[in-house]
Automatic annotation (TrEMBL):
The gene is htpX. It comes from Methanobrevibacter gottschalkii. Keywords: Cell membrane, Hydrolase, Membrane, Metal-binding, Metalloprotease, Protease, Stress response, Transmembrane, Transmembrane helix, Zinc. The keyword Protein transport does not apply. The active site is at E139. GO terms for molecular function: calcium ion binding; metalloendopeptidase activity; zinc ion binding. InterPro entries: EF_Hand_1_Ca_BS, EF_hand_dom, HtpX_protease, Pept_M48_protease_HtpX, Peptidase_M48. Gene3D superfamilies: Metalloproteases ('zincins'), catalytic domain. GO terms for cellular component: plasma membrane. This is Protease HtpX homolog. It holds the Pfam family EF-hand_5. Residues 265-291 form the EF-hand domain. GO terms for biological process: proteolysis.
Length: 318
């Protein structure tokens, strides 16, 4: 198993920066309100983060309409998950079926000891066995790395900053502009926090891709699955996409960027058969990939890495 110390270090540093931001902002709020016991506010923020940690998996399950998928219903899925769990060296996660109309899969849970993997119904008729196993292997990587709960916990901090910003910018009690300044700082910290959350989200996707390969899946099978999932999401209407927008970081790919991703994948689908073969991926491994400025900027605002950069890394593994 590849050493994941860089991923762990980035998650730790991101968490430290995020908690420093909220600590500083709450100190300003307490000072402005004349409350010396700022610990009360900081404690409240910690409670919010803890509640996100504790109830986050249940919220994801409910919002994504997940129900248990029994072994009798899908013995081949359970077999895949068991094989991948054995390869990852963790206990078999719970398996669920998400009744949403976008083909995809996602992992959630508080740790690798109580992980959950859910697949959406449309994915079953879209991917072949190797592709589906590669996608589930990707989700198994998230559980192995325990990165789902870090993302869920830190993602609530920008929202705390956002609500503080709204409360003070439009409070009507400026007191020589002090409230407005706090509001502006809150909004700036909200933007910084969002960028940090997106950064750690993109980083963990690279490691989950590599984990899927380390668990025995072919890189080309995962790339081909990403191609098909992007195509499937691109065919969904905007209302369907918007319904899962708040949870899109949990998906294998960014469904908001599906149409652009399809265009990128078509560039390496040399025989235009709608799949990516081992040979096509090997050709990419020996080619240079250039990312436009527009795509580079879009990546900064995305929960997932640029598709060509992501596929290039998988090609190098091939």
């Amino acid at each position: 198993m590849r050493n994941t110390w860089k991923l762990k270090l980035r998650m730790i540093l991101t968490s430290v920066v995020m908690f420093t931001i909220v600590y500083f902002l709450i100190m300003l709020v307490g000072s402005f309100l004349g409350i010396s016991s700022w610990k009360l506010y900081f404690g409240a923020s910690l409670v919010i983060v803890f509640l996100q940690y504790w109830f986050g998996p249940s919220i994801v399950k409910r919002s994504m309409n997940v129900r248990p998928l029994s072994e009798a219903e899908a013995p081949h899925i359970h077999q895949m998950v068991q094989e991948l769990a054995d390869a990852a060296g963790i206990q078999k996660p719970e398996i669920g079926l998400s009744e949403i109309n976008i083909p995809n899969a996602f992992a959630y849970g508080r740790s690798s000891r109580n992980g959950h993997i859910a697949i959406t119904r449309p994915i079953l008729g879209l991917l072949d066995r190797d592709e589906l196993k590669a996608v589930i292997g990707h989700e198994m990587g998230h559980i192995k790395h325990n990165d789902m709960i870090v993302t869920a916990a830190v993602s609530v901090i920008p929202m705390i900053c956002y609500y503080i910003a709204l409360s003070f910018m439009f409070s009507g009690d400026n007191d020589n502009g002090g409230a407005f300044v706090i509001g502006i700082l809150g909004y700036v910290f909200y933007l910084i926090g969002q960028l940090l959350v997106l950064f750690i989200s993109r980083t963990r996707e690279y490691y989950a891709d590599e984990a899927s390969v380390e668990f025995g899946n072919r890189p080309a099978a995962l790339v081909s699955a990403l191609y098909k999932l992007s195509y499937g999401a691109a065919r969904c209407d905007e209302k369907t996409i918007s319904e899962v927008n708040t949870n899109r970081a949990f998906f294998v790919n960014d469904v908001n960027n599906a149409r652009n991703d399809v265009s990128d994948f078509q560039q390496i689908d040399f025989d235009s058969d709608g799949k990516i073969s081992d040979e096509e991926l090997r050709r990419l491994a020996n080619s240079d990939v250039e990312i436009s400025r527009k795509n580079g900027l879009m990546e900064l605002l995305s929960t997932h890495p640029d598709s060509l950069k992501r596929v290039k890394r998988l090609a190098e593994l091939e």
